[in-house]
């Protein structure tokens, strides 16, 4: 008989960062009553958090907000994996959902962000309509079900996890990935990092207030202008700080003042709206530089990348974030701080800090 109560949380991440996500989860659930152990295979692109005591997975899920996690792309309540009969992949899935008594408004089929995972696209497509049809007949897939979403996570062609996500504590993008098209006129593909950061950290109904023409910003380590391009697209006037050359086409917009100075020592002539920074340097040094800007209130919003070491990546992230939190608290500066390992990031994470008015 299928289990009637889910016993796991399932997290998606970038392949190769499974250990970093596990270390983060250990810290996040340090004071929880939940006893658990991780199941994580290197380069798999996901982590299973298996609950070992009698706590309900739905309740454990509520203890942590996905937005507070750095290395997780998605967080789901899940049953243990089902190994399927390749001659009938549907029956066992339906039986599990019916036994759980789940109802939901959407069905998403997903797989790891790996080459093997991408190779399952045909299988998922072939099963979508038969699954939806059967689930509607069983009254599990319905129009009004609290905006709950069913996820079928295929780790291989014959292994699937039945999982659920809930509004306000999940990613609204398939696989937790915001796919973007690189603008043809952007000086570099790094431009996608900043664009994805805005989509990740700034709610759509806040864009007009936080990103608009008439604002001014600084891009530290700007050359050749990938991040400056995004600021210009929002109509901002930009101080581009870098000893290297900027894109000539970008400079012709008339919205940029290029200063060949050191981004770590330059200070603005007056307070700005935005600071962005993608400088390659030690994470703590970048954090100290951003802290100086925020404590002096030289900007109201900051987005910056922290380049990670090869080992103990979560520990270094935690160190930098705790340093910034402590310094801003010491100065009684109310703020919001979010950090995420974005899809367009590689060996780095992106941090957003907003000073509250």
Automatic annotation (TrEMBL):
Its EC number is 2.1.1.186. The lineage of its organism: Bacteria, Pseudomonadati, Pseudomonadota, Gammaproteobacteria, Oceanospirillales. Monomer. GO terms for molecular function: methyltransferase activity. Catalyzes the 2'-O-methylation at nucleotide C2498 in 23S rRNA. Residues 188-279 form the Ribosomal RNA methyltransferase FtsJ domain. SUPFAM superfamilies: S-adenosyl-L-methionine-dependent methyltransferases (SSF53335). It is found in: Cytoplasm. Pfam families: FtsJ (PF01728), RlmM_FDX (PF18125), RLMM_N (PF21239). This is Ribosomal RNA large subunit methyltransferase M. It catalyses: cytidine(2498) in 23S rRNA + S-adenosyl-L-methionine = 2'-O-methylcytidine(2498) in 23S rRNA + S-adenosyl-L-homocysteine + H(+). Its main location: cytoplasm. GO terms for biological process: methylation. Residues 88-165 form the Ribosomal RNA large subunit methyltransferase M THUMP-like domain. InterPro entries: RlmM_FDX, RlmM_THUMP-like, RNA_MeTrfase_FtsJ_dom, rRNA_MeTrfase_M, SAM-dependent_MTases_sf. It comes from Larsenimonas suaedae.
């Amino acid at each position: 008989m299928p289990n009637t109560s889910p016993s796991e949380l399932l997290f998606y991440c970038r392949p190769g960062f499974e250990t970093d996500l596990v270390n983060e989860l250990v810290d996040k659930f340090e004071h929880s009553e939940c006893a658990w152990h991780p199941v994580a295979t290197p380069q798999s692109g996901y982590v299973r958090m298996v609950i070992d005591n009698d706590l309900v997975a739905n309740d454990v899920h509520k203890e942590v907000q996905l937005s507070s996690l750095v290395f997780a792309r998605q967080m789901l309540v899940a049953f243990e994996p089902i190994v399927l009969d390749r001659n009938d992949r549907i029956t066992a899935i339906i039986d599990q959902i019916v036994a759980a008594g789940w109802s939901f408004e959407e069905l998403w089929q997903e797989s790891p962000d790996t080459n093997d995972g991408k190779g399952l696209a045909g299988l998922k497509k072939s099963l979508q309509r038969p699954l939806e049809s059967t689930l509607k007949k069983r009254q599990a897939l319905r129009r009004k079900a609290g905006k709950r979403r069913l996820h079928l996570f295929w780790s291989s062609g014959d292994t699937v996890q039945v999982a659920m996500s809930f509004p306000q504590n999940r990613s609204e993008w398939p696989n937790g990935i915001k796919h973007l098209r690189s603008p043809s006129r952007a000086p570099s593909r790094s431009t996608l990092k900043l664009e994805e950061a805005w989509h990740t950290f700034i709610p759509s109904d806040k864009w007009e207030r936080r990103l608009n023409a008439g604002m001014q910003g600084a891009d530290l380590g700007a050359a050749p202008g990938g991040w400056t391009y995004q600021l210009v697209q929002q109509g901002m006037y930009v101080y581009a700080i870098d000893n290297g050359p900027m894109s000539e086409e970008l400079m012709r917009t008339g919205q940029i003042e290029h200063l060949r100075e050191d981004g770590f020592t330059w200070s603005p002539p007056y307070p700005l709206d935005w600071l962005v920074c993608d400088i390659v340097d030690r994470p703590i040094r970048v954090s100290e530089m951003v802290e100086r800007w925020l404590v002096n209130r030289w900007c109201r919003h900051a987005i910056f990348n922290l380049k990670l070491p090869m080992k103990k990546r979560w520990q270094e992230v935690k160190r930098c974030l705790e340093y910034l939190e402590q310094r801003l608290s010491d100065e009684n500066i109310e703020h919001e701080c979010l950090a995420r390992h974005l899809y367009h990031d590689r060996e780095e994470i992106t941090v957003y800090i907003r000073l509250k008015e």
